[in-house]
Amino acid sequence: MRKPVLTIFYQFNPWNTTIGGIQTLINTFIKYAPSEFKVRLVGTGNDTSLPLGRWQEAEFAGKEISFLPLFTLQNDNIRSLIPTTLKYTTALLGRYLASDFMHFHRLEPTLAALNWQGEKTLFIHNDIRTQMQAAGTKKAILWRRFPAAYFALESLLVRQFSQILSCNTDSAEFYQQRYPSVRDRIAYIKNSFDDQVFYPLTREEREAKRRELSARLGLVEETRFVLFAGRLHPQKDPILLVRAFAALNDPNVHLLIAGDGELAAEVRGEIVRLGLSSRVTMLGAIAQAELAQLHRTCNAFVLSSAYEGLPLVALEALASGTPVVTTRCGETPKLLTANSGIVCWQRDPVCIAEQMRKILLHIDDYPIESCVQIAQPYAASTVVRSVYSEMLSRWEQRCSKAFNL
Among residues 28, 29, 36, 27, which one has the least CA distance to residue 5? Predict the structure, then answer.
Protein backbone atom coordinates (compact mmCIF):
# COMPACT_ATOMS: atom_id res chain seq x y z
CA MET A 1 0.00 0.00 0.00
CA ARG A 2 1.34 3.44 -0.91
CA LYS A 3 1.89 6.10 1.72
CA PRO A 4 -0.88 8.65 2.29
CA VAL A 5 0.17 12.15 1.22
CA LEU A 6 -0.29 15.22 3.40
CA THR A 7 0.09 18.58 1.66
CA ILE A 8 0.44 21.67 3.87
CA PHE A 9 -0.35 25.09 2.41
CA TYR A 10 1.13 28.26 3.88
CA GLN A 11 3.02 31.31 2.64
CA PHE A 12 6.45 30.81 4.21
CA ASN A 13 9.80 29.11 3.83
CA PRO A 14 10.60 26.78 6.75
CA TRP A 15 14.35 27.24 6.33
CA ASN A 16 14.04 30.98 7.06
CA THR A 17 14.18 32.48 10.55
CA THR A 18 10.50 33.26 10.59
CA ILE A 19 8.16 34.58 13.27
CA GLY A 20 4.69 33.30 14.01
CA GLY A 21 2.76 30.53 15.67
CA ILE A 22 1.42 29.19 12.37
CA GLN A 23 4.90 28.71 10.97
CA THR A 24 6.08 27.09 14.21
CA LEU A 25 3.11 24.72 14.23
CA ILE A 26 3.70 23.69 10.62
CA ASN A 27 7.37 23.06 11.36
CA THR A 28 6.30 20.87 14.27
CA PHE A 29 3.88 18.92 12.07
CA ILE A 30 6.74 18.22 9.67
CA LYS A 31 9.14 17.25 12.43
CA TYR A 32 6.72 14.84 14.12
CA ALA A 33 5.33 13.31 10.93
CA PRO A 34 5.44 9.50 11.20
CA SER A 35 7.23 7.49 8.54
CA GLU A 36 3.86 6.20 7.27
CA PHE A 37 3.19 9.62 5.67
CA LYS A 38 4.66 11.48 2.73
CA VAL A 39 4.65 15.21 3.58
CA ARG A 40 4.57 18.04 1.06
CA LEU A 41 4.73 21.79 1.70
CA VAL A 42 3.52 24.47 -0.70
CA GLY A 43 5.27 27.64 0.42
CA THR A 44 7.48 30.47 -0.83
CA GLY A 45 11.08 30.83 -1.95
CA ASN A 46 13.61 33.31 -0.64
CA ASP A 47 16.28 33.00 -3.33
CA THR A 48 15.89 34.06 -6.94
CA SER A 49 18.02 31.08 -7.96
CA LEU A 50 15.49 28.68 -6.42
CA PRO A 51 13.32 27.08 -9.14
CA LEU A 52 9.81 28.39 -8.55
CA GLY A 53 6.65 26.48 -9.31
CA ARG A 54 8.37 23.08 -9.30
CA TRP A 55 8.41 20.32 -6.70
CA GLN A 56 11.81 19.59 -5.18
CA GLU A 57 12.94 17.09 -2.59
CA ALA A 58 14.41 18.60 0.58
CA GLU A 59 15.11 17.85 4.21
CA PHE A 60 13.67 19.70 7.18
CA ALA A 61 13.97 18.77 10.87
CA GLY A 62 15.43 15.44 9.86
CA LYS A 63 12.48 14.58 7.60
CA GLU A 64 12.39 14.21 3.83
CA ILE A 65 9.69 16.44 2.37
CA SER A 66 8.58 17.67 -1.05
CA PHE A 67 8.68 21.45 -1.29
CA LEU A 68 6.96 23.68 -3.85
CA PRO A 69 7.84 27.41 -3.68
CA LEU A 70 5.22 29.45 -5.53
CA PHE A 71 7.02 32.81 -5.59
CA THR A 72 9.92 34.63 -3.98
CA LEU A 73 9.33 36.22 -0.58
CA GLN A 74 12.43 37.69 1.00
CA ASN A 75 11.00 38.48 4.44
CA ASP A 76 7.66 37.09 5.58
CA ASN A 77 7.97 38.95 8.90
CA ILE A 78 7.03 42.27 7.30
CA ARG A 79 3.86 42.92 5.32
CA SER A 80 4.09 44.45 1.86
CA LEU A 81 1.63 46.77 0.15
CA ILE A 82 0.02 43.80 -1.58
CA PRO A 83 -0.97 41.24 1.11
CA THR A 84 1.12 38.08 0.92
CA THR A 85 -2.02 35.98 1.30
CA LEU A 86 -3.40 37.55 -1.89
CA LYS A 87 -0.17 36.78 -3.76
CA TYR A 88 -0.21 33.22 -2.44
CA THR A 89 -3.85 32.65 -3.36
CA THR A 90 -3.33 34.05 -6.84
CA ALA A 91 -0.32 31.78 -7.35
CA LEU A 92 -2.43 28.74 -6.40
CA LEU A 93 -5.29 29.51 -8.80
CA GLY A 94 -5.35 27.24 -11.79
CA ARG A 95 -3.16 24.57 -10.15
CA TYR A 96 -4.30 21.14 -9.05
CA LEU A 97 -2.39 20.18 -5.90
CA ALA A 98 -4.88 17.83 -4.30
CA SER A 99 -3.66 14.99 -2.09
CA ASP A 100 -5.07 12.52 0.42
CA PHE A 101 -4.88 15.11 3.21
CA MET A 102 -4.61 18.90 2.82
CA HIS A 103 -3.95 21.30 5.69
CA PHE A 104 -4.79 24.97 5.22
CA HIS A 105 -3.90 27.67 7.75
CA ARG A 106 -5.57 30.61 6.02
CA LEU A 107 -9.03 30.72 4.48
CA GLU A 108 -8.28 32.69 1.32
CA PRO A 109 -6.02 30.12 -0.44
CA THR A 110 -8.79 27.53 -0.24
CA LEU A 111 -10.53 29.39 -3.07
CA ALA A 112 -8.13 27.54 -5.35
CA ALA A 113 -8.98 24.21 -3.74
CA LEU A 114 -12.76 24.21 -4.13
CA ASN A 115 -12.68 21.45 -6.74
CA TRP A 116 -9.75 19.49 -5.35
CA GLN A 117 -10.51 16.00 -4.13
CA GLY A 118 -9.20 14.79 -0.76
CA GLU A 119 -9.65 15.41 2.96
CA LYS A 120 -9.28 19.14 3.64
CA THR A 121 -8.66 20.59 7.10
CA LEU A 122 -8.82 24.30 7.94
CA PHE A 123 -6.93 25.39 11.05
CA ILE A 124 -8.33 28.52 12.77
CA HIS A 125 -5.57 30.31 14.67
CA ASN A 126 -7.39 33.37 16.05
CA ASP A 127 -10.73 34.21 17.59
CA ILE A 128 -12.09 35.77 14.41
CA ARG A 129 -15.00 37.54 16.13
CA THR A 130 -12.67 39.33 18.57
CA GLN A 131 -10.18 39.92 15.78
CA MET A 132 -12.76 41.75 13.67
CA GLN A 133 -13.96 43.82 16.63
CA ALA A 134 -10.58 44.67 18.20
CA ALA A 135 -9.95 48.34 18.85
CA GLY A 136 -7.10 50.16 17.16
CA THR A 137 -5.83 50.44 13.62
CA LYS A 138 -7.65 48.47 10.94
CA LYS A 139 -4.24 47.69 9.47
CA ALA A 140 -4.02 44.84 11.97
CA ILE A 141 -6.12 42.79 9.55
CA LEU A 142 -7.26 44.09 6.19
CA TRP A 143 -10.59 42.23 6.40
CA ARG A 144 -11.62 44.46 9.33
CA ARG A 145 -12.41 47.10 6.73
CA PHE A 146 -14.76 44.69 4.95
CA PRO A 147 -16.18 42.26 7.55
CA ALA A 148 -19.32 41.48 5.52
CA ALA A 149 -17.17 40.51 2.54
CA TYR A 150 -15.00 38.25 4.70
CA PHE A 151 -17.93 36.36 6.20
CA ALA A 152 -19.54 36.03 2.76
CA LEU A 153 -16.34 34.46 1.45
CA GLU A 154 -16.11 32.25 4.51
CA SER A 155 -19.67 30.97 4.12
CA LEU A 156 -18.86 30.04 0.52
CA LEU A 157 -15.71 28.11 1.43
CA VAL A 158 -16.35 26.35 4.75
CA ARG A 159 -18.49 23.57 3.31
CA GLN A 160 -15.56 22.05 1.43
CA PHE A 161 -13.73 21.09 4.64
CA SER A 162 -13.83 17.69 6.26
CA GLN A 163 -12.58 19.33 9.46
CA ILE A 164 -12.40 22.86 10.85
CA LEU A 165 -10.12 22.88 13.87
CA SER A 166 -9.68 25.87 16.17
CA CYS A 167 -7.18 26.29 19.00
CA ASN A 168 -9.60 28.69 20.70
CA THR A 169 -12.73 27.33 22.38
CA ASP A 170 -14.71 30.56 21.87
CA SER A 171 -13.85 30.53 18.17
CA ALA A 172 -14.86 26.87 17.80
CA GLU A 173 -18.21 27.61 19.45
CA PHE A 174 -18.68 30.68 17.24
CA TYR A 175 -18.18 28.62 14.07
CA GLN A 176 -20.50 25.87 15.28
CA GLN A 177 -23.26 28.44 15.83
CA ARG A 178 -22.59 30.29 12.58
CA TYR A 179 -22.45 27.19 10.37
CA PRO A 180 -24.84 24.60 11.84
CA SER A 181 -24.80 22.55 8.62
CA VAL A 182 -21.15 21.65 9.23
CA ARG A 183 -21.29 21.78 13.02
CA ASP A 184 -20.14 18.19 13.43
CA ARG A 185 -16.96 18.96 11.46
CA ILE A 186 -15.90 21.82 13.75
CA ALA A 187 -13.84 21.05 16.85
CA TYR A 188 -11.35 22.45 19.32
CA ILE A 189 -7.76 21.28 18.93
CA LYS A 190 -4.91 21.85 21.34
CA ASN A 191 -2.12 24.00 19.97
CA SER A 192 1.15 22.22 20.54
CA PHE A 193 4.73 23.17 21.37
CA ASP A 194 7.86 21.16 20.59
CA ASP A 195 8.72 19.51 23.91
CA GLN A 196 12.09 18.41 22.56
CA VAL A 197 13.08 22.10 22.31
CA PHE A 198 11.16 23.80 25.12
CA TYR A 199 11.84 22.31 28.55
CA PRO A 200 12.81 23.72 31.96
CA LEU A 201 16.06 24.02 33.89
CA THR A 202 16.34 23.72 37.65
CA ARG A 203 16.02 26.93 39.63
CA GLU A 204 19.80 26.92 40.21
CA GLU A 205 20.57 26.39 36.53
CA ARG A 206 18.15 29.14 35.58
CA GLU A 207 19.82 31.57 37.97
CA ALA A 208 23.23 30.73 36.54
CA LYS A 209 21.96 31.38 32.99
CA ARG A 210 20.38 34.66 34.10
CA ARG A 211 23.69 35.85 35.52
CA GLU A 212 25.47 34.83 32.31
CA LEU A 213 22.96 36.79 30.25
CA SER A 214 23.39 39.83 32.50
CA ALA A 215 27.15 39.71 32.01
CA ARG A 216 26.83 39.24 28.25
CA LEU A 217 24.63 42.35 27.98
CA GLY A 218 26.87 44.37 30.31
CA LEU A 219 24.20 44.61 33.02
CA VAL A 220 24.50 44.25 36.78
CA GLU A 221 24.38 40.68 38.04
CA GLU A 222 21.07 41.18 39.85
CA THR A 223 19.22 42.13 36.65
CA ARG A 224 15.93 40.31 36.11
CA PHE A 225 14.56 39.77 32.62
CA VAL A 226 11.13 40.07 31.07
CA LEU A 227 10.72 38.51 27.62
CA PHE A 228 8.41 39.24 24.72
CA ALA A 229 8.58 37.12 21.55
CA GLY A 230 6.42 37.54 18.49
CA ARG A 231 5.70 39.53 15.39
CA LEU A 232 5.89 43.31 15.85
CA HIS A 233 2.40 43.75 14.51
CA PRO A 234 -0.73 45.60 15.72
CA GLN A 235 -2.23 42.30 16.92
CA LYS A 236 0.58 41.92 19.48
CA ASP A 237 0.52 45.64 20.39
CA PRO A 238 4.24 45.97 21.21
CA ILE A 239 3.81 49.70 21.77
CA LEU A 240 1.55 48.93 24.74
CA LEU A 241 4.22 46.53 25.99
CA VAL A 242 6.93 49.20 25.89
CA ARG A 243 4.70 51.69 27.69
CA ALA A 244 3.89 49.09 30.33
CA PHE A 245 7.59 48.47 30.83
CA ALA A 246 8.11 52.21 31.26
CA ALA A 247 5.35 52.21 33.89
CA LEU A 248 7.15 49.37 35.69
CA ASN A 249 10.00 51.83 36.23
CA ASP A 250 12.46 49.37 37.76
CA PRO A 251 16.12 49.95 36.78
CA ASN A 252 17.00 46.36 37.71
CA VAL A 253 14.59 44.84 35.19
CA HIS A 254 15.50 44.50 31.51
CA LEU A 255 13.06 43.88 28.66
CA LEU A 256 14.05 41.58 25.79
CA ILE A 257 12.03 41.87 22.58
CA ALA A 258 12.53 38.94 20.22
CA GLY A 259 10.83 39.53 16.89
CA ASP A 260 10.50 41.69 13.83
CA GLY A 261 7.71 43.22 11.82
CA GLU A 262 6.19 46.37 10.42
CA LEU A 263 6.11 48.13 13.83
CA ALA A 264 9.84 47.63 14.52
CA ALA A 265 10.79 51.25 13.75
CA GLU A 266 7.86 52.57 15.77
CA VAL A 267 8.83 50.39 18.73
CA ARG A 268 12.42 51.65 18.58
CA GLY A 269 11.14 55.22 18.48
CA GLU A 270 8.93 54.65 21.52
CA ILE A 271 11.85 53.13 23.43
CA VAL A 272 13.93 56.24 22.74
CA ARG A 273 11.05 58.61 23.51
CA LEU A 274 10.51 56.98 26.91
CA GLY A 275 14.22 56.94 27.77
CA LEU A 276 14.43 53.15 27.87
CA SER A 277 17.33 52.56 25.49
CA SER A 278 19.57 51.13 28.23
CA ARG A 279 16.80 48.94 29.66
CA VAL A 280 15.37 47.34 26.50
CA THR A 281 17.15 45.13 23.98
CA MET A 282 15.57 44.42 20.61
CA LEU A 283 16.91 41.10 19.37
CA GLY A 284 15.19 40.91 16.00
CA ALA A 285 14.10 37.59 14.54
CA ILE A 286 15.96 34.77 16.28
CA ALA A 287 16.20 31.02 15.79
CA GLN A 288 13.97 28.69 17.78
CA ALA A 289 16.88 27.25 19.79
CA GLU A 290 17.94 30.72 20.91
CA LEU A 291 14.37 31.59 21.86
CA ALA A 292 14.17 28.42 23.93
CA GLN A 293 17.31 29.45 25.82
CA LEU A 294 15.74 32.84 26.60
CA HIS A 295 12.54 31.21 27.83
CA ARG A 296 14.62 29.09 30.23
CA THR A 297 16.52 32.16 31.45
CA CYS A 298 14.00 34.98 31.87
CA ASN A 299 11.94 35.64 34.97
CA ALA A 300 8.65 36.33 33.20
CA PHE A 301 7.08 36.29 29.76
CA VAL A 302 4.56 38.99 28.78
CA LEU A 303 1.86 39.22 26.09
CA SER A 304 0.14 42.54 25.36
CA SER A 305 -2.03 41.27 22.49
CA ALA A 306 -5.33 42.73 21.35
CA TYR A 307 -6.57 39.32 20.19
CA GLU A 308 -5.25 35.77 20.07
CA GLY A 309 -6.16 32.14 19.52
CA LEU A 310 -3.85 30.18 21.79
CA PRO A 311 -0.38 31.66 21.25
CA LEU A 312 2.26 28.96 20.97
CA VAL A 313 4.80 31.27 22.54
CA ALA A 314 2.83 31.27 25.79
CA LEU A 315 2.90 27.46 25.85
CA GLU A 316 6.62 27.54 25.09
CA ALA A 317 7.23 29.89 28.02
CA LEU A 318 5.22 27.75 30.42
CA ALA A 319 6.91 24.57 29.19
CA SER A 320 10.24 26.25 30.00
CA GLY A 321 9.06 26.95 33.54
CA THR A 322 8.46 30.68 33.01
CA PRO A 323 5.31 32.37 34.35
CA VAL A 324 3.19 34.36 31.89
CA VAL A 325 1.60 37.80 32.12
CA THR A 326 -1.13 38.18 29.49
CA THR A 327 -3.88 40.51 28.47
CA ARG A 328 -7.41 39.11 28.60
CA CYS A 329 -7.62 37.62 25.13
CA GLY A 330 -7.40 34.23 23.51
CA GLU A 331 -7.21 30.90 25.29
CA THR A 332 -4.24 31.70 27.57
CA PRO A 333 -6.33 33.25 30.39
CA LYS A 334 -8.30 30.00 30.59
CA LEU A 335 -5.14 27.98 31.10
CA LEU A 336 -3.26 30.02 33.67
CA THR A 337 -3.51 29.16 37.34
CA ALA A 338 -2.68 31.34 40.33
CA ASN A 339 0.83 29.89 40.44
CA SER A 340 1.65 29.91 36.70
CA GLY A 341 0.80 33.43 35.61
CA ILE A 342 -1.47 36.46 35.80
CA VAL A 343 -4.21 37.83 33.53
CA CYS A 344 -4.41 41.63 33.14
CA TRP A 345 -8.08 42.49 33.13
CA GLN A 346 -7.38 45.91 31.64
CA ARG A 347 -5.31 46.55 28.53
CA ASP A 348 -3.42 49.54 29.83
CA PRO A 349 0.24 50.13 30.74
CA VAL A 350 -0.27 50.52 34.49
CA CYS A 351 -2.25 47.28 34.86
CA ILE A 352 0.30 45.26 32.88
CA ALA A 353 3.17 46.86 34.82
CA GLU A 354 1.56 45.98 38.14
CA GLN A 355 1.21 42.32 37.16
CA MET A 356 4.79 42.12 35.90
CA ARG A 357 5.95 43.62 39.19
CA LYS A 358 3.91 41.12 41.18
CA ILE A 359 5.62 38.17 39.49
CA LEU A 360 9.10 39.69 39.66
CA LEU A 361 8.77 40.44 43.38
CA HIS A 362 7.25 37.07 44.26
CA ILE A 363 8.86 34.67 41.79
CA ASP A 364 8.76 31.80 44.31
CA ASP A 365 4.96 31.94 44.13
CA TYR A 366 5.25 30.75 40.51
CA PRO A 367 7.20 27.48 40.70
CA ILE A 368 8.78 26.01 37.59
CA GLU A 369 6.86 22.79 38.14
CA SER A 370 3.50 24.58 38.17
CA CYS A 371 4.21 26.29 34.85
CA VAL A 372 5.38 23.07 33.20
CA GLN A 373 2.32 21.19 34.44
CA ILE A 374 0.01 23.63 32.62
CA ALA A 375 1.88 23.20 29.31
CA GLN A 376 2.38 19.45 29.38
CA PRO A 377 -0.98 18.42 27.82
CA TYR A 378 -0.05 20.54 24.78
CA ALA A 379 3.26 18.78 24.02
CA ALA A 380 3.69 17.95 20.34
CA SER A 381 4.92 14.47 21.17
CA THR A 382 1.35 13.80 22.34
CA VAL A 383 -0.90 16.18 20.37
CA VAL A 384 0.64 16.07 16.89
CA ARG A 385 1.24 12.34 16.98
CA SER A 386 -2.38 11.85 18.00
CA VAL A 387 -3.54 13.92 15.00
CA TYR A 388 -1.44 11.79 12.65
CA SER A 389 -2.71 8.60 14.27
CA GLU A 390 -6.31 9.64 13.64
CA MET A 391 -5.47 10.62 10.04
CA LEU A 392 -3.85 7.24 9.42
CA SER A 393 -6.86 5.45 10.88
CA ARG A 394 -9.22 7.34 8.54
CA TRP A 395 -6.93 6.61 5.61
CA GLU A 396 -6.88 2.89 6.34
CA GLN A 397 -10.66 2.84 6.67
CA ARG A 398 -11.04 4.55 3.29
CA CYS A 399 -8.60 2.15 1.67
CA SER A 400 -10.38 -0.85 3.18
CA LYS A 401 -13.75 0.42 1.97
CA ALA A 402 -12.41 1.05 -1.53
CA PHE A 403 -10.84 -2.42 -1.63
CA ASN A 404 -14.08 -4.09 -0.60
CA LEU A 405 -15.96 -2.25 -3.33
Answer: 36
Q: Which residues, other chains included, contact 320 with Cβ-Cβ below 8 Å and sequence gap of 6+?
A: 198, 199, 200, 292, 295, 296, 371
Query: What pLDDT score was predicted for residue 131?
Result: 65
* Dihedral Cα 302, 171, 197, 324, nearest 10 deg: 20
Q: How far apart are CA 350 and CA 356, in angstroms?
A: 10
How many angstroms separate the first and last alpha carbons of the chain?
16
134 by DSSP, 3-state: which? Answer: coil
- pLDDT tens digits, residue range 12-45? 999 987 778 899 999 999 999 999 999 999 999 9
Name the β-bridge partners of 170.
none
Average predicted confidence (pLDDT) for the chain: 92
* Whole-angstrom distance, CA of residue 332 vs CA of residue 3: 37
CA–CA distance, 257 with 233 (Å, rounded to integer): 13
Handedness of CA 39, 42, 48, 54 (dihedral sign): positive
Percent of all residues in the chain with a pLDDT value above 70, rounded to a whole number = 93
Q: Give Rg (Cα) of the chain.
A: 22
Residue 288 is predicted with a pLDDT of 93
**Helix, strand and coil percent figures for the chain, each rounded to 5:** 45, 20, 35
CATH 3.40.50.2000 residue window(s) in the chain: 5-192+380-404, 203-378
Fold of domain 203-378: Rossmann fold (3.40.50)
The fold for domain 5-192+380-404 equals: Rossmann fold (3.40.50)
Name the phi and psi angles at 370, rounded to 5. -65, -40
Residues 357-371, mean pLDDT to the nearest whole number: 97
Taking CB atoms within 8 Å and a gap of at least 24, the contacts of 388-396 are 388/32, 388/33, 388/34, 388/36, 388/37, 391/4, 391/6, 391/37, 391/101, 391/119, 392/4, 392/34, 392/36, 392/37, 394/119, 395/4, 395/100, 395/101
- Range list of β-strands (E), 186-245: 186-188, 224-229
Q: pTM for the complete prediction?
A: 0.91
Tell whether the model's pLDDT for residue 335 goes beyond 70.
yes
